[in-house]
Amino acid sequence: MSRTIHFFRFVAASVGIHLLFLAAVVYFASRAAVPLQITPINIVNLPQEVLRGLPPVARPAPPTPVPRPAPAPQPERFVPPQQVPAPKQFGTSPDVTLPRTTPGFGRPEGSEQGTADRGKAGQGPVTGTPDVGKGPLPFLSQADIDELARKGMPERRPGENSVTLDTDEFKLMSYNRWLKMKVESVLRYPEIAAQSGLQGTLYIKFDINKDGSLGDLELLKSSGYKILDDEALRSIRASAPFQPLPDDWHMQRYSIRAAVLFYLSGAYIR
């Protein structure tokens, strides 16, 4: 096509669009020019006798709430009580029985061993309320440990002058307390024995010479497990040398009979 035809088509389209736009403007302008017609309303107060003759206006009643159905009761599930098994008792001598214990609030292992306050008799996990902070072994009070150590202690042989660590002789008490702390600092519960549940009480006798060196060392009664017996003897040897004996004792040798307890992953000497 020639350029002239294109030009005339463009002009015709442009004129058509402008005519449509003008027609729209005229239409809306004529609509807006029409004035709004307002219908007057007269408000009249009716006389009282007329109002009395009108039927009463019934107000709609509020909707009645629909009650929700109560949830069906759920049957109670029976939960059997958990049984706390008693700790296994291994390797104890016939005259020494470890007590059955329940979880309490004993001082954790390793906290001030040998310096804990004494528990009161008749209290603790066996016969009453657990002693809070009593005794270095879990679930045992200091009184329980002393009782276990005394039950199976072998008697002294004829002519023997040995004493126990819990002797009430005043001049020996301070030395014995230091001695227990020294031995317990190296005494360990064998890991294999603890994992296997081995526990028991054994009794030993050892001599301390005048200069503090270790003399004779003897196993008086076995726990029933060699691994526990060997650890107790090792701890005594590793604790030497000890403090020299005081001069006012007038003793060249101090013989001691002691009990070593391995119980619930704790080790203690009494």
Summary tags:
single chain; 270 residues; alpha+beta; TolA/TonB C-terminal domain; 30% helix
Structural write-up:
With 270 residues, the protein is an alpha+beta fold. It has a domain at 157-269: TolA/TonB C-terminal domain. Helices cover 30% and strands 13% of the residues. It is built from six helices and five strands; from the N terminus they run αααβααββαββ. Strands 1, 2, 3, 4 and 5 form a five-stranded mixed β-sheet that branches. The termini are far apart.
Q: In angstroms, what separates the terminal alpha carbons? A: 124 Å
* Count of individual helical segments: 6
CATH class of one domain: Alpha Beta
Compute the CA-based radius of gyration.
51 Å
Biggest sheet overview? 5 strands, mixed
Structural class: alpha+beta
Can you count the beta strands?
A: 5
Overall pLDDT level: 75
CATH architectural type of one domain: 2-Layer Sandwich
In terms of topology, how is this protein built?
Elements: H1 3-33, H2 48-53, H3 142-151, E1 163-164, H4 170-184, H5 191-196, E2 200-209, E3 214-221, H6 226-239, E4 253-263, E5 266-269
Parallel strand pairs: 1-4
Antiparallel strand pairs: 2-3, 2-4, 4-5
Summarize this entry quickly:
The chain is of the alpha+beta class and 270 residues long. It is 30% helix and 13% strand.
